Amino acid sequence: MLVRELVDRFEQFAPKTWAEPGDPVGLQLGSLDAEVHKVLVTLDVRPEVVAEAIKVGADFIFAHHPMMFHPAKNLDLAVPQNQMYATLLKHDITVYGAHTNLDSAPGGMNDWLAAALGLHDVTGLVPSNGITATPEITMGRIGTLAQPTTVKAFAEQCKIIFNVQGLRLISHTPDAPVSRVAVLGGSGGPFYQTALAKGADVYVTGDISYHPGHDMIAAGLNVIDPGHHIESICKLHLTQLFQQWVQENDWPITVVPSALNTDPFTFL
């Protein structure tokens, strides 16, 4: 089968037009008319992931994070990123990225995160700015825990849920009660006021920087930052979704999740 057959089905689930403006989603390298036999699902496209694709015999990499956030200024192969592009071309591997369109899709990234946190009565958090997004297409989710807990205890649960060695807790009231939780995968710091306005006791998101952290505390919002890499939850869920489509359509392809951890951070 061709790459475009899987891509067309995926874009029914999460259209590119639901992506935030300027987000470089879609085909990253290769051809939609290339044949595909084995798909490797990953969070990031890094040199070690490309090596993994070659090792397992994948000819299509499906990633959450687009490979080309920043265009190459030259094709100097001494630059690791450029060498990675050359390796992909040499081995005829096509790369596709689904980013904020997957974040906003019903049943997509943020629903997976909300389910992992055990949230009930889940609704959308931030309206999508995608050009065809309707009001129900939203980034982030907010919902209620089955059993109330405390900020600190919930942070400890997040470490277990997301299998992280450590996280950052932004709070002056770690013993405060928690029942309503907002979550937004990736870098959700700019949307903390929306989480606060919608009644969140805790906001779970990544990449909080220093001064916004102060602002969050001043506003009275507790924030848990388990990192950006928690979005790796997509590897299992996308693999399961694609395998379902393989069975429904009798596609002659194999789909496997990347076994690599691409989190650049280590806690000491």
TrEMBL record:
<dbReference type="InterPro" id="IPR036069">
    <property type="entry name" value="DUF34/NIF3_sf"/>
</dbReference>
<dbReference type="Pfam" id="PF01784">
    <property type="entry name" value="DUF34_NIF3"/>
</dbReference>
<feature type="binding site">
    <location>
        <position position="103"/>
    </location>
    <ligand>
        <name>a divalent metal cation 1</name>
    </ligand>
</feature>
<feature type="binding site">
    <location>
        <position position="228"/>
    </location>
    <ligand>
        <name>a divalent metal cation 1</name>
    </ligand>
</feature>
<dbReference type="GO" id="GO:0046872">
    <property type="term" value="F:metal ion binding"/>
</dbReference>
<comment type="subunit">
    <text>Homohexamer.</text>
</comment>
<protein>
    <recommendedName>
        <fullName>GTP cyclohydrolase 1 type 2 homolog</fullName>
    </recommendedName>
</protein>
<dbReference type="GO" id="GO:0005737">
    <property type="term" value="C:cytoplasm"/>
</dbReference>
<comment type="similarity">
    <text>Belongs to the GTP cyclohydrolase I type 2/NIF3 family.</text>
</comment>
<feature type="binding site">
    <location>
        <position position="231"/>
    </location>
    <ligand>
        <name>a divalent metal cation 1</name>
    </ligand>
</feature>
<dbReference type="InterPro" id="IPR002678">
    <property type="entry name" value="DUF34/NIF3"/>
</dbReference>
<keyword id="KW-0479">Metal-binding</keyword>
<feature type="binding site">
    <location>
        <position position="65"/>
    </location>
    <ligand>
        <name>a divalent metal cation 1</name>
    </ligand>
</feature>
<feature type="binding site">
    <location>
        <position position="64"/>
    </location>
    <ligand>
        <name>a divalent metal cation 2</name>
    </ligand>
</feature>
